[in-house]
Design brief:
Elements lengths: L1 H9 L5 H8 L1 H9 L14 H6 L4 H10 L25 H30 L18 H5 L2 H14 L4 H5 L3 H21 L1
C-alpha cells in the first residue's frame, strides 16, 4: 500500500513555478522582511469636516458610511441532489410478517412430507420417487434433507421482495407458497397411500 502511494504521488507532475517557489522560499521571505514594499493595514475613513467640504451633508454621509460598512459574506447554500442516486426497495413490516409465516408453513409442510414418506416406506406401501431424496429415504436424515428446498425457496422469496424489477417484487410470495403447497400435497398423498 505504501509503495502504491509513493508511485501515485511520484507520478503527479509539478509545475516549474511550484518547484521554483519551494526552492527559493527562504530568499523571498528575506526580501519581504527587508521592507521591499509596504502596504497599508487599513484604509483611513473620511472625517466629518472632509464630508462637509465636499458639499455633502453630514447626515447623508453617515448613512452612506453605514451602507458601505463591511457586510458579512453570504454563505452559499450546499448543493443538494435532486433525487437520490440509488435507492434499493425495502421490505415493509407486513411483507416481513408474511415472509416469516410462509417460511414456517413451508418448513412445517416439508417435515410433514418427510414424516408421511417415512411412514409409507416403513410399511412397504411404496418408494421415494424423488431421485435427490432417495438416498435418505431409509434413515432419519430424510427430515433434514427435505428442509433444503424450503430454505432455497425462502432465499428466493426474500431476494424477489427487494428486487429492482416491479413484477418480481409483486410475486415474491410465489416460491414459498408453491414449495409449501407441493409439500402439503405430497404429504396428503402419502397419508392416503399409507391407509
Amino acid at each position: 500500500m505504501l509503495l502504491a502511494t509513493i508511485f501515485l504521488l511520484g507520478a503527479i507532475p509539478q509545475s516549474a513555478q511550484v518547484a521554483k517557489s519551494v526552492a527559493n522560499a527562504p530568499v523571498e521571505v528575506a526580501a519581504e522582511t527587508a521592507g521591499a514594499r509596504s502596504l497599508p493595514a487599513m484604509p483611513v475613513p473620511k472625517t466629518a469636516t472632509e464630508a462637509e467640504t465636499d458639499g455633502v451633508s453630514s447626515s447623508l454621509s453617515s448613512s452612506v458610511a453605514a451602507a458601505e460598512a463591511v457586510q458579512p459574506p453570504r454563505a452559499a447554500l450546499p448543493i443538494q441532489p435532486l433525487k437520490a442516486a440509488y435507492t434499493r426497495p425495502r421490505e415493509t413490516r407486513n411483507q416481513r410478517i408474511a415472509w416469516y409465516a410462509l417460511a414456517v408453513t413451508g418448513h412445517g409442510a416439508a417435515a410433514f412430507d418427510a414424516y408421511s414418506t417415512r411412514l409409507v416406506i416403513a410399511g412397504n406401501y411404496g418408494t421415494e420417487s424423488n431421485p435427490f431424496l432417495r438416498p435418505f429415504a431409509n434413515s432419519s436424515a430424510l427430515y433434514a434433507a427435505t428442509q433444503v428446498s424450503p430454505v432455497v425457496m425462502d432465499y428466493i422469496g426474500k431476494r424477489m421482495m427487494v428486487s429492482q424489477n416491479r413484477w418480481l417484487r409483486r410475486m415474491w410470495w410465489l416460491p414459498q407458497a408453491a414449495g409449501g403447497g407441493f409439500s402439503i400435497g405430497a404429504g396428503v398423498h402419502n397419508m392416503g397411500v399409507a391407509k
